[in-house]
Structure formats: structure tokens, C-alpha cells
Records
---
Amino acid sequence: MVNRTRPYSILLIEDNPGDVRLTQEAFKEGKKEVTLEVVADGVEALKYLRKEEKYAEKITPDLILLDLNLPKWDGREVLKEIKDDPQLKRIPVVVLTTSNAGSDILKCYELHANCFIIKPIDFDDFFNIIHKIEEFWLSTAILPSMVV
């Protein structure tokens, strides 16, 4: 059974303030009600997901948007930790990064990323990508968090 009684919760793991702002604005324009939480490095991302310290009251996100090039722990390390954790591995992870390296793409899928998207440089293209993420992940796909 599918149940949706609250806004969608998305965790954006991104250290670039410009990309954070663009993502926030794109979701504001979207069709779904979204709570977008942001952490700027891999260590904070794992604290958030494990509900440690100041994140103890946070809800588990429905979807994670993960940049690869992060301070402290990079996105590959974060992805591995998420997918190795029995409590977190069902959360879909969309890698959203500037990297177009084949080795990064293959590594992320080996680590069980659910999707790999190269960030567009153009403002309108970036908004379009966020809207496509919203359309697929929040309108078409049935997320694990929706199953009761």
C-alpha cells in the first residue's frame, strides 16, 4: 500500500552555495511539496542520515541528491556508507555532479547509486534537470518510504 501524508523530504549533499540555491529555487517552482535539507560535506551527511548529534530529530529522507566532490568525505565514500548500511540502503541516491568521467559513473553504479546525472552548466538546463528528477522520483516512481 502506498501512503503520502507529508511533504517529500530530500537531502541535498552539496558544498557549492550556488548549486544549493539553484536547487532550492527549482524545487520551489516544482509541482510537489518538498522539504529540502542541505548538508555541505560527507561527514555531516552521514551524521544527518544516522540521526546523530544535532540531527537526532530529522526524518529519514525520501531521496538523496549527492554531489561527488565534497569536503571531508567525498561523495563516493558517502555513497558506499549509505548503501552498506541496512537502515539507509533503500533510500534512492541520485548522484548529481559535474563529473563526466567514465570511471566516476561506473564507480557510482558499482556502489549502487540509483541514478547518475551530470550537472548542466546552463541555468535553465539545471532547472530542467531538477524538474525531471522531481517528475520521475516524486511523481512516477514509488519510493520505499511510501510503502506502509
---
Amino acid sequence: MNPTVDDYHVIDKELSSRHLDLDPAGYFIIYLDTDAGLICAKHYTNVINDRGLAVDPETGKVIPAKSKVERTATTLFTGRTAKELCVKIFEETEPVPLTMLNHAAYLGREFMRAEIALITGSEYVQD
């Protein structure tokens, strides 16, 4: 029997709730600039404490995952497509601003989701 759309949503929801180690090189906040037709990815550096939590490098305070935090991005990457953004980040930036392959795979998936939202005019919310 072929999987249904709901089956795919269940798989995606389960995988989205798994534990992930944080990349010591930092994290990205991804959003769309629909007026400019761009996928945007702000890169932030962070420090991982001895409990595996991201902390603000300046204050040492834990960065909450679900709350809005005012920080300054180190770099803003933009692209019209997921591929263009990946080339800018992974091939044209030295040093590459991430150190974990699962982080790179995650970004590729998110950039594709963002590209689809940009093309279809739908809302994009980073997973």
C-alpha cells in the first residue's frame, strides 16, 4: 500500500522532535524576503556549554530555543534558490560556517522548503 500525505507528515513530525547536537560553529535563522524574491539565512555564532546548550558568547547566558533573542548576526546569506544559497555558504565561504554534516543536510532541506514557499507564495516557518 502506498503511503498517504498524512503518513509523510507523521514521519516528518517524529523526525523533527528528535535530539540534535548543536553545531559549535553556530546556527542559522532562515526567512523569506518575498519582496526581493530571496531566501535569507542569518548566521549567528555561539558557544556550547558543558551541558550541550548554546550560550551567548558575550553574556554566557543560555539562548532559549523558543523565545525571541536579540543578537547580531555575523553574516547574512541570500539566494534566489536553495542551490544558489548552498553554493554561497558551502562552496564560496571560507571557512564554511558550520562543522557538522547533519547541520549541512538540515540546511539543504530547509532551503528547499523555503524555495518552495517562495515559489508558491505560501508561508515559510523554519523547522
